[in-house]
Every structure is written in C-alpha cells, then in structure tokens.
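sanity check this record:

:::
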Amino acid sequence: MWYIIYAEDVDNSLALRIKARPAHLERISALVDEGRILVAGPTPAIDSEDPAEAGFTGSLIIAQFESLGDAKAWADADPYVGAGVFKSVTVKPYKRVLP
C-alpha cells in the first residue's frame, strides 16, 4: 500500500539538512531502485525552486510499504530525524486514484 510521510522542519533547518542530506538521499534512492516511490521532495520556505538561504519547511514522500508500521519505522529511521531536522513526522495510508 502507499503511505504519505510528511515531515515539518524545525526553524532554521538548512544547515542540519545539508549535513544529513547524503544519507537521506541514499535511503530514498534505495526505495527508487525498488520501484516503491511515487513522489518525494522538500517543501521550500518561499515560492521558489531554489529557496537558497530561506531553506525548507518540510518534506513529502509517498512510497509503498507492507504496512503502516513499516512506513512509520522507515520514517523514524530517516537521517533527517536523527540530525534534528524534523520537529514532527506524520505517516498516513494513501489511496492513489489519479493518474
């Protein structure tokens, strides 16, 4: 089943994100390689593709997992969580309808 993982950043998270980004992307790449990612990316703090120093306010991932528990465990083990980037993480089932 598909699951939404939506995380909100702590204030001024950019330096923390930059440091943990390689490990974070490595985990995302593993899901991509397994064909389990629908979409993934950060939410810019401003209306721009490249927010520069404004940074990001969170991240969204929609990916397939065997269960809600598996999705939560995966999200809890994200390097951004360990680095203190996220102040909250929400994981919910997602029903894909379109496209």
User: Anything to note?
Assistant: The chain has three helices and four strands. The radius of gyration is 13 Å.
